[in-house]
Amino acid sequence: xxxxxxxxxxxRLNAFINRDLDLAARRLVGQHLDxxxxxxxxxxxxxxxxxxxxxxxxxxxxxxxxxLNLIWTQIQQEIERPRPQEADEESLGWRSWLVLGALCLAxxxxxxxxxxxxxxxxxxxxxxxxxxxxxxxxxxxxxxxLHSYSTPSTPTASDHHLVAYLRNTPDPLLVRR
Amino acid sequence: xxxxxHSAHSTDDTQYLxxxxxxxxxxxxxxxxxxxxxxLYRLCYSLLFQQQDAEDVVQEAFVYAFKxxxxxxxxxxxxxxxxxxIAVSRCRNVHRRKRPPSMDIAQMSxxxxxxxxxxxxxxxxAQRAARDAIVTAxxxxxxxxxxxxxxxxxxxxxxxxMAEVLGCPQKTAESRVRLAHKxxxxxxQPIGGEGLLEELLKIG
Lengths: 177, 204
Ligand SMILES: [Zn+2]
Prior knowledge:
The complex is a heterodimer.
Chain A: H1 4-17, H2 23-35, H3 37-56, H4 65-80, H5 84-124, H6 131-147, H7 157-167, H8 172-175
Chain B: H1 4-7, H2 11-22, H3 26-48, H4 51-67, H5 79-97, H6 105-109, H7 122-140, H8 143-154, H9 159-166, H10 170-202
Helix pairs in contact in B: 2-3, 3-4, 3-5, 3-8, 4-5, 5-9, 7-10, 8-10, 9-10
The complex binds zinc ion.
Zinc ion (ZN) is lined by residues 5-6, 9, 32, 36, 38-39 of chain A.
């Protein structure tokens, strides 16, 4: 009669045959096999086919030496070509760059669009620059022109003043908005 | 080829060959091929039952392994199970591409060619029939179950190694082997019943 002991034993027959069970389990399975005819039949059958497979399967597909040599010649030719992982990495790199480029574009495009809109609008209708800012801009242009003739190594006091002044002053371009 | 490269077959020795191969030592490549090609071919043939397909997979697997040798991590797998993993995955691809192979027993067994049948005693013929039956039965198993039996009994892999190669838990590898045995019996019984199993027992 098939009971839980049979179930326990059947589940472990392979391991029992392969001597993969620990001692306690091995003892339980062994005792049940001695007591149960059905499980004993199963065990004998499994043992036979296991041994048969162990004997037969290593013989299946015995290779033939000249064929293996031929395969080796082809392998040698292949490994002398450029490494595939380099090619893989190249193509992968190429794809990654493409994806990265697309992402950048997706991020930059709205900004560019916004910037364009904000820049185009004031251009259509320029706001007047304040007199002070315009004066500073002209002054700076002149100073730069002078610098190309005389090249001072340290900024002058008036430069510092100018920079400080400019930092507190709206960017002329922004003012034009 | 350098004889020293073929003398020992330990894991350390394989690792040494791999290190030399990584440094583009052609002799080391040759020695690795020499060491693992026959086993790998047997594996592929037992899974595919087609000589040409098996040879193609052997070639692809070695080329892949050799070109990616730097990626091989000996702390995670042995070179053998790594190579087998590559090959099994490629055999699965072949299975997916193709219909199940047609069974040609003589070719499938790839054992020594038999003497003319008229000269053979009945017992030998019966044994051969039994042997062919088991090979046919193997061919009738699903790819997953066949992989399990082939790795376990054809290559003597432990369940842990099988799990590594098959990419499944160890318990799954064990239950596949158990299920494969069960299927094998249900396939063999309609062919020859218990009598065939008795025949199998007598072989050898
Ligand atoms: Zn029982």
